Input
Amino acid sequence: MTNVPSRATWLWLVEAALAEDIGPGDATSEALLSRDAQGEARLEARDAIVVAGLAIACEVFAQRGVTLSARVEDGAAVAPGTELARVRGPAIAILEAERTALNFVQRLSGIATLTRRYCEAVRGTRAEIVDTRKTTPGWRTLEKWAVRCGGGRNHRHALFDGILIKDNHVAAVGGAGIAVARARERGSRHLRIRCEVESFEQAREALEAGADSLLVDNQPPDVIAKVVALCAGRVRVEASGGVNLDSVAAIARTGVDEISVGALTHSAPAADVALEWTARSSS
Output
């Protein structure tokens, strides 16, 4: 099981999502059910997925006075029809929390499932699948956790925790070598310097200027392989740009250390998870 991020980093998101969906109350459930009615339901995977988000769903239901008992752990690969969790509590409260809880589980399980597919595609190579900052605003901590649930690794979390010289930085200062040298002179001594390059020549320039690692962006496998050979294990090499499930294996075979995939968080389809009612009793 991958450790759940600190509750303080995402509790506000749960509270905002519930407020957004419930507002002054669930008009339908309140019209149909007694406040004293109790209910039970199960969360079920409708497809083969890697689970992520049950810990968040537990908090969603708890906010409405409903108890969730997980049947599997976040990070588990499950078959269609698997019961993921059972919820029990006031019937109206279960229905109030249903969509918000499912939104978290479907979104995060979708990311974990897609990440696992990428990891399996590069199995047998040295390449690690890593994420990017292309995350849903406000969801970054949870989405990066879902990547870990799927077997991927997190890249830098935000702008403050790494020096990553991108193409626009290079253009702004006039060259990759100049950018690396300036970062070496002015940047924090506690942060490693990674430089994005778009050619073999740029890679050589950045390496000679003292880059700690290189990011080869939007280049074919033959160019990536040349950069890997140039670095000869002295610094780590990452590949990025236009990576998909059809191309990732060929990129991995170039010998790169990391392959960053924005699609893990910006294009993962929601996992098919449903809540099915199982029992109700009125007091």
